[in-house]
C-alpha cells in the first residue's frame, strides 16, 4: 500500500480498520518532487496542444498534484466487508427501496463501463508528459471503479440485469450523450477536443454519477444501511471529484492560452451540451424513482442537487449558470458535500480516509460506545 509514512488508522463504516490517511494537501503540495525542485518552464508562451518530447522541464507543474492525489488515495474494493450489505439488500429494505438501489447500482456500473478510455487517451491530444501521467493514473482508477461495481453487482445478484440495459430508454439516452464525448474526442480540431474535455469533466465526471451516489449514501446516513457499499461510493465520489477538478483546470488553461476560442458560439455550444446532459440525467432520476420516492430523500431534492452541480461546473470555467435552483431545498443535501466530498478544511485532495471516520455519517451516542 503506498504512502508508508502516512498518519494513523481510522475505521470504515463496517468497523474494519481503514488504510492510513494521506498527508494533508499542504504537505503534498509543498516541497517534494512536484514543487520547489522543478526546473523553470521553458521560455515563451505555453501551448497545451503542442507536442513536447522532453520529460523536463515541465510546462504545467501545477497539474502534477493530481497524480499525488490519486496515489495517496489508493484503494481497492476488497478492503471492505459487504456481508451486512447483502443482508440489507435482501431483508432490511422495502421492495421500493430495493428497486431504487438496484437501479442506482446499474446506472453507476453502466457509466463506469463507458468512461474507462477517455483519460488514458488524453496524452494523444495534449502531448505533455506531465499531463499523460495524470491521464494514465486516472485511467487506472477508472478500472478500479469498474472492478468494484462489477463485484458489487455480483454480490447483490444483479449480473443478469445488464442484459436489459438496452431496453431502458433513459440509460440509452445517457449513452447517446456519452457518445457525443467520444465523437468530439476523436476530432482532430482542437476546439472540438476542448469541448470533449469540457463535456466529460464537467457533466459526466462531475455530475452523472452523483445523483446515484447521493441516493445510496442517504441509506447509510438515514437508515444506517449499506456500510460496505457506502465506503466504495465515498471512495469513488472523491476520485470522480478529483477527475472533474483536473478537467476544470485543463479548460481554464486552454481558456488562458486560446481566449479567442471562448466566444459566444462556444458559450452557445456549452449551453446546448449542458441542457442535453441535464435532460438525460433528469430522466435517469425519474426512472430511479419510477415506483415511488424514498421517505428520507424525495425526488425533487435529488433533481435540485444535480442542477446545482451543473451550475457549479459552469461557474468553474467562467460560464453563467443555466438552471434555476431552490436554495432552501439545496440546504437539505449539504450533508453530501460536507461529509463526503470535502474534508474539514475543504480540501478535495485529502481523501485517503474516504471519510472512514465518524465524520462520514450522522453521529449519535450509540455510535460512540
From TrEMBL:
<dbReference type="InterPro" id="IPR000358">
    <property type="entry name" value="RNR_small_fam"/>
</dbReference>
<dbReference type="GO" id="GO:0009263">
    <property type="term" value="P:deoxyribonucleotide biosynthetic process"/>
</dbReference>
<dbReference type="InterPro" id="IPR009078">
    <property type="entry name" value="Ferritin-like_SF"/>
</dbReference>
<dbReference type="InterPro" id="IPR033909">
    <property type="entry name" value="RNR_small"/>
</dbReference>
<comment type="similarity">
    <text>Belongs to the ribonucleoside diphosphate reductase small chain family.</text>
</comment>
<dbReference type="Pfam" id="PF00268">
    <property type="entry name" value="Ribonuc_red_sm"/>
</dbReference>
<protein>
    <recommendedName>
        <fullName>ribonucleoside-diphosphate reductase</fullName>
        <ecNumber>1.17.4.1</ecNumber>
    </recommendedName>
</protein>
<feature type="region of interest" description="Disordered">
    <location>
        <begin position="1"/>
        <end position="46"/>
    </location>
</feature>
<dbReference type="InterPro" id="IPR012348">
    <property type="entry name" value="RNR-like"/>
</dbReference>
<dbReference type="GO" id="GO:0004748">
    <property type="term" value="F:ribonucleoside-diphosphate reductase activity, thioredoxin disulfide as acceptor"/>
</dbReference>
Amino acid at each position: 500500500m503506498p504512502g508508508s509514512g502516512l498518519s494513523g488508522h481510522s475505521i470504515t463504516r463496517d468497523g474494519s480498520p481503514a488504510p492510513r490517511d494521506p498527508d494533508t494537501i499542504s504537505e503534498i503540495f509543498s516541497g517534494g518532487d512536484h514543487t520547489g525542485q522543478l526546473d523553470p518552464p521553458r521560455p515563451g508562451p505555453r501551448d497545451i496542444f503542442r507536442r513536447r518530447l522532453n520529460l523536463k522541464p515541465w510546462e504545467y507543474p501545477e497539474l502534477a498534484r493530481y497524480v499525488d492525489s490519486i496515489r495517496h488515495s489508493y484503494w481497492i474494493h476488497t478492503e471492505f466487508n459487504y456481508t451486512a450489505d447483502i443482508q440489507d439488500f435482501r431483508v432490511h429494505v422495502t421492495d421500493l427501496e430495493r428497486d431504487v438501489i438496484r437501479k442506482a447500482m446499474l446506472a453507476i456500473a453502466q457509466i463506469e463501463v463507458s468512461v474507462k478510455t477517455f483519460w488514458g487517451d488524453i496524452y494523444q491530444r495534449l502531448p505533455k508528459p506531465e499531463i499523460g501521467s495524470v491521464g494514465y493514473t486516472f485511467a487506472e482508477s477508472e478500472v478500479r471503479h469498474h472492478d468494484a461495481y462489477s463485484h458489487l453487482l455480483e454480490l447483490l445478484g444483479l449480473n443478469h440485469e445488464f442484459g436489459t440495459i438496452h431496453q431502458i430508454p433513459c440509460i440509452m439516452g445517457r449513452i447517446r450523450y456519452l457518445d457525443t464525448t467520444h465523437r468530439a474526442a476523436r476530432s482532430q480540431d482542437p476546439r472540438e477536443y476542448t469541448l470533449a474535455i469540457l463535456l466529460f469533466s464537467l457533466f459526466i465526471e462531475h455530475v452523472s454519477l452523483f445523483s446515484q451516489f447521493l441516493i445510496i449514501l442517504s441509506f447509510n446516513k438515514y437508515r444506517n444501511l449499506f456500510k460496505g457499499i457506502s465506503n466504495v461510493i465515498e471512495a469513488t465520489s472523491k476520485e470522480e471529484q478529483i477527475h472533474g477538478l483536473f478537467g476544470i483546470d485543463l479548460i481554464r488553461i486552454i481558456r488562458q492560452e486560446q481566449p479567442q476560442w471562448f466566444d459566444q458560439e462556444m458559450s452557445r455550444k456549452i449551453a446546448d451540451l449542458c441542457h442535453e446532459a441535464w435532460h438525460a440525467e433528469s430522466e435517469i432520476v425519474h426512472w430511479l424513482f419510477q415506483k415511488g420516492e424514498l421517505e428520507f430523500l424525495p425526488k425533487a431534492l435529488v433533481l435540485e442537487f444535480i442542477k446545482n452541480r451543473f451550475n457549479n461546473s459552469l461557474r468553474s470555467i467562467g460560464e453563467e449558470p443555466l438552471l434555476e435552483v431552490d436554495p432552501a431545498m439545496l440546504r437539505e443535501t449539504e450533508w453530501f458535500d460536507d461529509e463526503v466530498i470535502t474534508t474539514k478544511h475543504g480540501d478535495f485532495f485529502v481523501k485517503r480516509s474516504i471519510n472512514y471516520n465518524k465524520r462520514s455519517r450522522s453521529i449519535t451516542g450509540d455510535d460512540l460506545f
